[in-house]
Amino acid sequence: MNYLNSIKIAFNALKRNKFRAFLTMLGIIIGVASVIVMLAIGQGSKKSIQDQMAGMGTNLIFAMPGSEQKGGVRMGNSDAQSMKLSDVEAIQRDCPAISDVSPEVRSSGQAVVGNQNWPTSIFGVNNNYFSIRKYTIGSGRSFTSTEIDTYAKVCLVGQTVVNNLFGKTNPIGQTIRFGKIPLLIIGVLGIKGENGWGQDQDDLLMAPYTTVQKRILAITHVQSIAASAVSESLNAAAIEQISKSLRNSHKLKDGTEDDFQVRSQSEMVQTFSSISDIMTALLGAISGISLLVGGIGIMNIMYVSVTERTREIGLRLSVGGRGNDILLQFLIESILLSVLGGIIGISLGVVATQLMASLMNWPVVITTVSVVMAFLVCSAIGIFFGWYPARKAASLNPIDALRYE
Amino acid sequence: MMKTIIEVNQLKKDFYVGDITVHALRGVNLQISEGEFVAIMGTSGSGKSTMLNILGCLDKPTSGTYFLDGISMGELSKNELAALRNIKLGFVFQSYNLLSRTSALENVELPLFYNSKIKSKERRERAEAALEAVGLADRMHHMPNQLSGGQQQRVAIARSLVNDPVVILADEATGNLDTRTSYEIMALLQDLNQKGKTIAFVTHEADIAKFMTRQVIFRDGHIIREEKVPNRSNAVELIKALPTEELV
């Protein structure tokens, strides 16, 4: 008995019961389609989070003041003034895993041009900041070191600010007032869009940190330090080196707590990714259950089918079918059912996913892994749930089977 | 002397039902030669069906020997028995046992599916030839439910012929048919027998047994009588003699 014949026999048997075969497959179809769709949604949301994070720079590292103690009282994180420009210089000097570093000072306020005004923030930074945060210069230029040294009243503006204050006119060369300080616009930042939290990253001004420190905030410390690691894989080393450098600069003794904290963007990426991984696993598990139910459906139908076709089995045995031929026939029937159902389910899942992507604008990613996995699971279900009924069919005694009413 | 197709010596078959042992066959000797058309007769429980099951390699005897076409089947495994059924035997059942929703042609092809030596083209040709031989050349693609009882039994006979068996075993093959159709089936079997087919036919109807060459009568697990059929009936002539029913 060759396998081709077995497949033909099984195929003919299914063809005789098209509607029942379809109903049997329905469970698998729905199960597989939902696995594909759920995984696509899970993977899609993970990818969109990762993309947005990558847009902010995956090798981005922030250092900001941590809690400090004043006479035994632990203070909050934000207001400490413990970071100095010298810390930035030390990091630049001491940390080989860091490629760029920039101080950061921020202020919010009203930007005014002529009779227009707009609430926004101003960031005081150095020239490295653009590459660290993945900003581009859309037009114009960035600061010169002379401008930084002389607290020059210059700034770059984000596109949102341009839209709100200048409309269609070219802002370069014009003056914008932030608070009471008039600043000359020397460049416009390239559009960056929203970040992962829906925050508009184009709604800001960027000025030399010296300008913001002296002219706007009147402070000498820096609020935080932004740095980029040489590569993403060096993030951990970079964090270590920055911590060491800062402990050194701040003259912290061994055993005392850090008075700063260092965070990397990739840590946040990991956090969000792991949340979406859990979501994906959850969605996958739910649809996996429906796949299991589909498999049990196949077993159920195959089992009934063996009983219903007892006389057919008896006949096949009497004309020379061996037990193994019968086993193979029923096994192939159930595998055909589940694999066919799997293929239909995969197609349906892919179509549904694309529909969702185009109609609802959901971020979806269909991975080869999920398709291959769904397919393998289907075949496995066919074998697993087909085995028992097939075994039962094969073990029938031909005489009893022929006389079965 | 013609070649011996079936040779059974001291065949015994016991069934165990709970504590009770049922002796279905109590030492049967039987020979069937090539070209014979043997009626195996007897009342219910006489052992004739058990005998047919053993002759058909569907069941094994408790003791005794059975040679089919010179092969001793006592030592064969289950799979070897299946292979033997596939090439040496043809079955015709009382209730036809055709696969439903499967064309006559595909039903007849069925035994050849289990013979890996036969390619699909040959399978088709042989099935067509077998259906032509039973006079159903124009019904090859009909489903069983589109055929009359007599036609269904003809398909079953074609199926039993398709592997060119050494013996055809029929189990009450006319049991579900009316007189005229029964005679038609017997005419077909007589014709096949005329062409050299060996047939063993289980029946309890005396008038059907009259069509065969020899009668073997069972009672209580023994063969009580074995005789040549005197004045053997010719089915074709009997059909002619049947009154043509005028249905009102």
List keywords for this structure.
heterodimer, A: 405 residues, alpha+beta, 2 domains, six-stranded mixed β-barrel, two-stranded antiparallel sheet, 13 helices, 56% helix, B: 248 residues, alpha/beta, Rossmann fold, six-stranded mixed beta sheet, four-stranded antiparallel beta sheet
Tell me about this structure.
The complex is a heterodimer of chains A (405) and B (248). With 405 residues, chain A is an alpha+beta fold. Chain A has helices at 3-16, 18-56, 85-94, 129-132, 145-149, 159-165, 209-217, 235-249, 265-308, 310-318, 323-360, 368-394, 398-403; strands at 60-65, 69-70, 73-74, 98-113, 116-125, 137-140, 154-157, 175-178, 181-189, 204-208, 224-229, 260-264. The longest helix of chain A has 44 residues, at 265-308. The model of chain A has no long low-confidence stretch (mean pLDDT 86). By secondary structure, chain B is of the alpha/beta class. Chain B has a domain at 4-96 and 166-240: 3-Layer(aba) Sandwich (Rossmann fold), CATH 3.40.50.300. In chain B, 33% of the residues lie in helices and 27% in strands. Chain B is built from eight helices and ten strands. In chain B, the strands form two sheets. In chain B, strands 6-7-8-3-9-10 form a six-stranded mixed β-sheet. Chain B has a four-stranded antiparallel β-sheet with strand order 2-1-4-5, covered by helices on one side. In chain B, a hairpin with a 2-residue loop joins strand 1 and strand 2. In chain B, helix 4 crosses helix 5 (149-161), helix 5 packs parallel to helix 6 and helix 6 packs antiparallel against helix 8 (235-241). The longest helix of chain B is centred in the last third of the chain and has 16 residues, at 179-194. Chain B is globular, with a radius of gyration of 18 Å. Classes of the chains: A alpha+beta (405), B alpha/beta (248). At the A-B interface, helix 1, helix 10, helix 11 and helix 13 of A face helix 2 and helix 3 of B.
